[in-house]
Amino acid sequence: MNTEKYIVLRSQDVFSPTRGSTGMRGAGMRSTGDTSVKLEEADLTKRERNDLRRDPRTRAIALPMPLKLIAPVRRQMTDTVIPPTADQTITWGVKAVRAHESRFDGTGVTVAVLDSGIDPNHPAFAGVNLLQQNFTREDPNDLDGHGTHCAGTIFGQDVNGTRIGIARHIERALIGKVLGEGGGTSATLAKAIQWALHEGAHVISMSVGIDFPGYVDWLVKTEGMHVNPATSMALEEYRANVNLFTELASFVQAFSSVGQGTIIVAASGNESNRPQYEIAVAPPAAGTGIIAVGALGESDKGFTVAEFSNNQTDIAAPGVDILSAEAGSDKLTRMDGTSMATPHAAGVAVLWAQRQLEVNGRVENQSLMAQLVASGTYASLAPNSEEDDVGTGIVQAPLN
């Protein structure tokens, strides 16, 4: 029989034996009232797929789609760091979200960065407990530089007197390498989200996206399909994968009631080309329950939406000319992209999570999402900024 590999997300009832139990499910067993989910990849026949779709315990079923870095629109290597002032040089992004004014620094909070890995030897990460998990088949460290740059913005230490990090006193960071030179899939990312959740992440930062054009191209070139049915098939799997990440986000929210609260922050994508056209937020950020981040740049009229930034975002953050850690060296580098905006938002979320820990003793999913989104402001944005482009505005760190 012909089979295809699918991602399956299913609810799992938890049962315990009653007196006189035979050990059989449904015979002498009672439900504890608790549920969990099981995520797996399985080779399924057409009949098995249809049976699973009819099973009420099936939350999502989808073909793994190609995953790609939401690649920076621009990279500019920096041989020397901007000379510090008498006080300290602070990147414009850190200032724009007011992290330098906040009394919060990330103490007690765990963050996960699901990306291309990290360069653990960069001085920006000195003293941070890095728990690395490699979901690829290549070197566990960062060979691209993307993940290192993103991590530097969230929790990087000062480099040669320059502040690049928002939450500089994070003591524990989870680094999931979900993409390598051979690419990755949505199945890899789904597994990494589950890993980060069970490792205690309060904030999960993802600057990756599903490669829809690449999937269509693969169907045409490898499977020999005409572009029209290939596009239709890709759209169906695109929809199924959006549902997968929506259901995963729902599970993350439910987990908050029994474990630590966790939120997911993801890049909206760089496919727009303003003012010619705008593209809507791409998955996984398109999933309900995931905070989609748009990118902003500086101008003499205030912060403006970046020309590449996708719309229908929830919030916005600095994403143009962002200075952060450069993999393979002890220097810094500049990048543009919603990938760079996302760690700014994730870093601010870490500060809000710390505030919750201090006030309530725990982090709660829905209230942390609400606080992060509500922190957005239009006050520093250029006039006539549209909600569809920037959501509630540029995120702001808690000050007290």
From TrEMBL:
PROSITE patterns: SUBTILASE, SUBTILASE_ASP, SUBTILASE_SER. GO terms for biological process: proteolysis. Gene3D superfamilies: Peptidase S8/S53 domain. Residues 106-358 form the Peptidase S8/S53 domain. One of its GO terms (molecular function) is serine-type endopeptidase activity. Keywords: Hydrolase, Protease, Serine protease. InterPro entries: Peptidase_S8/S53_dom, Peptidase_S8/S53_dom_sf, Peptidase_S8/S53_subtilisin, Peptidase_S8_Asp-AS, Peptidase_S8_Ser-AS, Peptidase_S8_subtilisin-rel. The active site is at 115 (charge relay system), 146 (charge relay system), 339 (charge relay system). Belongs to the peptidase S8 family. PANTHER family: CELL WALL-ASSOCIATED PROTEASE, SUBTILISIN-RELATED. This is S8 family serine peptidase.
